[in-house]
Amino acid sequence: MKIISLVFNSYFDAFRIVREAGLRKFYFLPGIISLFLFGMFIYLGDYLSLNLTNSLESFFKLGEYSSILYIFIKILVWLCTIFFYYLVYKSLLLVIISPILGYISERVETYLTGKEFDFKMSDNIKFLLRGIDIGLRSFFKQMIGTCIVMLLGFIFPINLSIPLLIFIIQGYFTGFSFMDYTLERYNLSSRESLQFLRKQRVYAALCGGIFTFLFFIPLIGIFIAPLITCVATTKITLELLSDYKISD
């Protein structure tokens, strides 16, 4: 109950922090980048799914089957392609906007604690390199976890919970990506950050899950999700770090 309360209160409070800390302008830049990437990946997904469907149609002679089966296969191929590209898209997005979100996280900590940071342009490179490192690790682990869940889908009753399991895996690593902006400022190495994640996995999964829900709100989700999640997870991570010790 304490975990749920902290996460949801932080997300609700994030809108106030954005307003009072003067962060409203950051709705737009990550949102525009998100919109561009999203459109590009939707186009690529549609293009590749069309080519894949045509190849399957030619190889299996799908035109000889009923029109309903043909339409079903086309929809299934399109959904699978879009799903795969969503996984790539999300990881790529977080890598590209990591310098922006890192700066936002600093501003939030300054607002909450009064601690000042000397943000230099060189920090952008540091955030980008760390974002690539964490993003690639998370992406490959997400893909491995997702593939395992899909393979287990042939086992009843596990197949009934596949969407939920995939959602949890995605939320887990997405939440950690946002938490890492704060962990980096406290000089936690990638290994130590992963150690932190294992201890706070429920927080990470909830934060990432809420990000996904916000992200898919029509029209506005793509603009508010990165900023609000960054603000909320910064507040949550600061509270968790206050009584966290790195073990040897």
UniProtKB/TrEMBL annotation:
Keywords: Amino-acid biosynthesis, Cell inner membrane, Cell membrane, Membrane, Sulfate transport, Transmembrane, Transmembrane helix, Transport. Pfam families: EI24. It is found in: Membrane. GO terms for cellular component: plasma membrane. The keyword Transferase does not apply. The chain crosses the membrane at residues 26-45, 65-88, 139-158, 203-228. It is a multi-pass membrane protein. The lineage of its organism: Bacteria, Fusobacteriati, Fusobacteriota, Fusobacteriia, Fusobacteriales. GO terms for molecular function: high-affinity sulfate:proton symporter activity. This is Putative sulfate transport protein CysZ. GO terms for biological process: cysteine biosynthetic process; sulfate assimilation. The keyword Amino-acid biosynthesis applies.
